Known about the structure:
The complex is a heterodimer. Chain A has helices at 14-24, 37-42, 78-83, 85-90, 93-98, 104-109, 112-118, 126-131, 149-152, 228-234, 241-248, 265-287; strands spanning 7-9, 28-31, 50-53, 63-66, 69-73, 135-140, 143-148, 153-155, 158-159, 166-173, 178-187, 194-204, 210-218, 225-226. Helix content of chain A is 33%, strand content 27%. Chain A is of the alpha+beta class. Chain A has 3 domains: 7-56, Uridine Diphospho-n-acetylenolpyruvylglucosamine Reductase, domain 2, CATH 3.30.43.10; 58-172, Uridine Diphospho-n-acetylenolpyruvylglucosamine Reductase, domain 3, CATH 3.30.465.10; 179-287, 2-Layer Sandwich (Enolase-like, domain 1), CATH 3.30.390.50. By secondary structure, chain B is α+β, with helices and mostly antiparallel strands. Chain B folds into 4 domains: 31-134 and 201-273, Aldehyde oxidase/xanthine dehydrogenase, a/b hammerhead (Aldehyde Oxidoreductase, domain 3, Alpha-Beta Complex), CATH 3.90.1170; 139-192 and 287-366, Aldehyde oxidase/xanthine dehydrogenase, molybdopterin binding domain (Aldehyde Oxidoreductase, domain 4), CATH 3.30.365; 415-457 and 624-782, Aldehyde Oxidoreductase, domain 4 (2-Layer Sandwich), CATH 3.30.365.10; 462-618, Aldehyde oxidase/xanthine dehydrogenase, molybdopterin binding domain (Aldehyde Oxidoreductase, domain 4, 2-Layer Sandwich). Chain B has 20 helices and 28 strands. The chains are: A alpha+beta, B alpha+beta. The A-B interface holds A 1-2, 4-5, 43-44, 186, 189-191, 261-264, 267, 270-271, 274-275 and B 117-118, 121-122, 125, 278-280, 639-642, 680, 684, 692-693, 696-701, 762-764, 767-768, 771.
Amino acid sequence: MIPAAFDYLAPATLEEAIRALGTHGEEVKLLAGGHSLLPLMKLRLASPTLLVDLGRIPSLGLISQEGDKILIGALSTHYQIESSKLLKEKCPLLPQTARVIGDVQVRNRGTIGGSLAHADPAADMPAPILALAGELRATGPQGERRLKAEDFFLGLMATALSPTEILTEIRVPLLSGRCGTAYLKAPQKASGFALVGVAVWLKLSASGICEDIGIGVAGLAAKPFRAKGVERRLRGKNLNPSLIEEAASHTAQGVDPMEDIHASGEFRADLARLYAARAIQEAAKRAGV
Amino acid sequence: MPVSKLVGAKVRRREDPRLIRGLAHYVDDISLPGILHVAILRSPYAHARIKGIQTEAALQVPRVVAVFTGSDIGDRVGAVPVASQNPTLRVPKRAVLASDKVCFVGEAVAAVVAEDRYAATDALDRIRVDYEPLPVVSDPEKALGRESPVIHSEWPDNVAFRWTLKQGNLSKVFKDADKVVKQRLVHQRLAPIALEPRGVVARYFPGEGELTLWSSTQIPHLLKTQLSLMLKLPENYVRVIAPEVGGGFGSKLNVYAEEALLGYLAMKLNRPVKWIEGRRENIQATIHGRGQVGEVEVAAERDGTILGLQYRVIADIGAYHQLLTPGIPPLTGLMLSGAYKIPAISIEVTGVFTNKMSTDAYRGAGRPEATYVVERMMDRVARELGMDPVKIRRKNFPKPKEFPFKTATGLVYDSGNYQLALDKALKLVGYEKWKRQQKRLRSQGRYLGIGLSTYVEICAMGPSAAMPAGGWEYGAVRVEPTGKVTILTGVSPHGQGQETSFAQIVADELGVEIDDITVIHGDTAVVASGIGTFGSRATAVGGTAVLQAAQRVKEKAREIAAHLFEADLEDLVFADGKFSVKGVPKKGITLEQIALEAHMARKLPKKMEPGLSATAVFEPSNFTFPFGAHICVVEVDPKSGAVEIKKYVAVDDCGKVINPLLVDGQIQGGIAQGLGQALYEEVIYDENGQLLTGSLMDYALPRAKDVPRFELARTETPTPVNPLGAKGVGEAGTIGSTPAIVNAVVDALSPFGVTHIDMPLRPEKIWRLCQAKEAASAGGRR
Ligand SMILES: Cc1cc2nc3c(=O)[nH]c(=O)nc-3n(C[C@H](O)[C@H](O)[C@H](O)COP(=O)(O)OP(=O)(O)OC[C@H]3O[C@@H](n4cnc5c(N)ncnc54)[C@H](O)[C@@H]3O)c2cc1C
């Protein structure tokens, strides 16, 4: 449980960090909260020769509002997100998700950027970011890129980030009107990660029709995804329990569920349907259905 | 007897301040000049021949001092010992480092010694071992099959030992019974997961020829003896120290390869060495618990009277024996009468080698298995007969006047009132109210379950005649010249709190302030002899030795006082910490004054030896048998398989209580671990013998939020076995709780036709059973 030797750099600016990434090639790793990377290093499943610590770049850790968007610095910790007044009022889905990540220590160290960049299929944060159709911004030697959440996750621990890019910011919409959100997860008992986690955001019209809805699912498949088939079945409809249940029954459709000692694919798929139904119900209730 | 002030009182643990403030010294806190660090290379294969090991590259790593393999050590270190008198026992040789072949994932094959842990760990990656994989068997039932690979070629099959016990006319009982209920039961393997993994520091003084070994152990004295045998050193040149030990649960009631290895390395290199186990090593190479698969059959009359029980069980031994491995399943066998009068009982144990780490004692050690068998079956039989689980238990309890109660398995239960404990628990939980609630909620499609366990267990181990290496305990009490009191005990507390409870006992006996007492344990050079802490024995056996030593000190003090007062012994009274002559209470003499006289030795009675100390060795005449009733209420969500504990009530009787805080703490921790087995924990190896639950990201322990509030209560039935009247409480919570929780979940799912689920009760298992039922009834409707 001791990592191999490595060098450590803590640049004060983004530019320096990007430069460090470029010069050391494959062997360099960014360090955010370290709560995914360090365990891998201790098990020697990762042995970078240089760690570039993002922790000294102050601009990366801020949460702010810009027009109808909330900007979340990639280095914001789960705890910052959980306790942000702005998010709690204007985009409660993120605090609702952050709350159920790990334990207090994990939430105090782990970051949203680290979680998204690591792309653990069982991580919680990708689900709400997908549900909210968030936008991710990354900076590399070629400058800044904007990525849609949907295009960001490519597969098992694989993202659209290039090795020389740094994820800097996540943008989510400011929710207004009759909105409701919910994140529900069935935790893997040992790790606390999601066997299945479902994030739901929905908006009702004045007459109670579901105007828009976003559903993100973590844990079920090798990559987190948006349950578009379910969304489609609910958009423009009057939400009621049997409709919700019917729609949610399509959550795992076309998905190849993961299997391990903690749950079979069959069980994961059924949990996804159940948790989707329950999360949609909960979100609808919060929106005042 | 003086008026009891402290015994029975809620005295706060005196050991906590240093623990809470991080000031205690565990093995890893011990640092010696010139110390070297050891890292161990472990086999990634469950079964493989070692064709060669290349260590040169490892030796090139800067700061590496030496690398050792099994062939470097040869037979200079003896094999890992096993203590058993079983004549059928097969003992494969377990070397401290494997040299010809490895038999489980995690078996040690080489040791790197370096100036620091980093270098030692780096060098592990540079050792090349040429393995030739061999066929693996990890399932104990398959290991008995004809087709199975044989792990140890000295023998024709994988049978490690057999053990049977049979009493009563079983064939007749089963033929005549109104009802026979059969069930297959699996007691999954568990990892003890002490908060502090193992660790060893060894130091050798070549001039003095003295080896000192610090180890995170529960049994320093037994370890000293075994180390001297393994290292071929005279025992009086070996000293073992158990410093602060961060939990054991039986996992440190052992003699491990690493302990002897470190002793050898210290002697060989003439430098102190340290090895600290990592958590992954801890799950791979520290003993596991449980691991039984059995078929039980119970014969009963229509009115619920239990007539007989037979249990055929396969015990999953692992690749080798550890110290007590073959001794655990017999404890299951002996306790198969549970808290009931069962006239005919038989058990057949087959110990089986598998390509896995050894099983051995884990909190409860054999008794949780027995309790689970019996308590699960009481529910199964009750259900078959349409009886309430409470009623069938009542029907079969021995009555209070039937104690001492002799079981068919040959034990004599010392004392008990099982009915009383159950009644108290029923009242506390509100049994009838929950029954009504269950009925009401079922009609709304919600599933409550109520589970009972009325356990009895065997502890305070134990009479020496029934133990593999002595069951007595040593205690000494010394009053220093300044009047301070030092207790020396052969038990080796590691969380149980005897630095508090033993001080309570002696404070009362000698009338001194508890703050003037210190309790020393865990150092074989300081404490003359001892057996250790396990089998819920420390207070009942070790505490009695301490009490008896204190009584002897008091007798001597009385003689000195009588001499100083020039009075007859019978005319002395002892009150408020002072001896005085009857009728003259004002002119008293304190223990402090007597201690000074005893050490100055100028005015002592003729022929009296100076000093004021005494030792005692207590040999118990029997085990003790704590008991109790646990009741658990759960709600199960059949759609997700989730189990929620809504209420948990435990009434435990551990005999006389010395300190209620310590007893409650033991019960709470015990239930948490029992709950872990019922719901979450399982060591899983795949068919290739790969450990799939090798870290705490995959081995599911209960967390604080999974553990509900336990409502605890007590009955107090003293044991006649020792003068304290104390039975033991270290394992009771674990033993009693597991079946209560499983019974509750099975009860909740009875509308789905569920009669049994194997542990751990993972959501998926529950979900599957409910799905099957829904599918079946949907099919039926169509
Ligand atoms: C005990 C424990 C329990 C946990 N439980 C949960 C849980 O229940 N749910 C859950 O979702 N997670 C859980 N986690 C994971 C936790 O949320 C991690 O903190 C998170 O997944 C990674 O964030 P980090 O800041 O620690 O990233 P790090 O570990 O520092 O980095 C992770 C990876 O992302 C890369 N990276 C980090 N930041 C950036 C960036 N800005 N741009 C590009 N690449 C970057 C790193 O190079 C590295 O490869 C748990 C972790 C632990 C240790």
